[in-house]
Amino acid sequence: MTGLPLQTSIPRATELLEAVCGHLEEGLLIVGDDGCVRFANPAATTTLQLPADAAGRRLVHAVSDHRLAMLVETCLGSAAECARELVDASGERYVMARAFPLGGAHGPVTEVAVVLRDETQLRRLESVRRDFVGNISHELRTPIAAIQLLVETLQEGALADPEMAPMFVSRIGLEVSHMSQMVSELLELSAIESGQLSVRVAPVPVTELLVAVERLRPLADERQLELRDEIAPDTPSVLCDATRLGQVMRNLVHNAIKFTPAGGRITVTAGPGDEGRVRLTVCDTGVGIAPEDQRRIFERFWKADRSRQRDGEGTGLGLAIARHVVEAHGGRIAVDSVPDEGATFTVELPAAVDAN
Ligand SMILES: Nc1ncnc2c1ncn2[C@@H]1O[C@H](COP(=O)(O)OP(=O)(O)O)[C@@H](O)[C@H]1O
Ligand SMILES: [Mg+2]
User: Which has the closest alpha carbon to 75: 33, 44, 116, 117?
Assistant: First the structure.
């Protein structure tokens, strides 16, 4: 494939090329047949972390990754285009380098041009997508296998057993509701991630946000957990979407209930935060979260060691959704926990400016 020839004078051509190279997303590096750097555009300088005095220096001295110098050498020697992937020592950055010879058509190769494309982001997205599909399949396999087993047991005679049949059918119902919960959370998450989350903010009194939490009181009672709230009298109203924030608070309290053994306590507090914010916390006396896991719990599908879970009904999506919703409001969510002592989730949101 060939392009169109550049129709301009030579000094103007240099100026044009420099301007274009300066704006290219790809790095462009030109190395002479003496192994010295002749040119690097800004993207190449950033990608390779070239020192400021790299021009005129030998490439092997200017760049720590010797594979790049080898690529240039191969290209010079073979007078043919070649490519290789450069991965930095931490394994966190991937750069695709393509080298092609210059001047070879009419004589010996005098320079090699290297085009560098940073593929880190692309790789990360690929791996996120792979994990995502893997996780969904894994999460669906468990309830599907359970349903399959229950149906087989019913078919093999349990259907005729007046005591067993209703029990199995209600178990199937539970598995189905777990799957439908997961599907609706996934849809919500994908709507959020594709930028379709519409938050309609209005001043909402904290007590209104905690109405959703109150609905969990029967569950807390059933699990023999004390559920109480402490709302500071000077708490401003929150500038938020009441339904969505109510859901977030409900999810946090539901988690606290799930991960706190009987006899424990769950406290929801509200009060003024820093810089015109409202601070809400959900504090429990449960199993807590190991320090190395605290960073990860807001990732989708992330769940701590299953053996510590009292019931396996969670999807691991609740906190991922909570983080998105809170951040869409310009707020923050964080966790603090001492394993075996409990966890505290803190949500900070913009306060509504007082009307009077
Ligand atoms: N209050 C809590 N105490 C201990 N662990 C928690 C608490 N809240 C969340 N976690 C951990 O974070 C994980 C992710 O929570 P979440 O996203 O709400 O998913 P799910 O509730 O579906 O498991 C939970 O599976 C649990 O391991
Ligand atoms: Mg949850």
Answer: 33
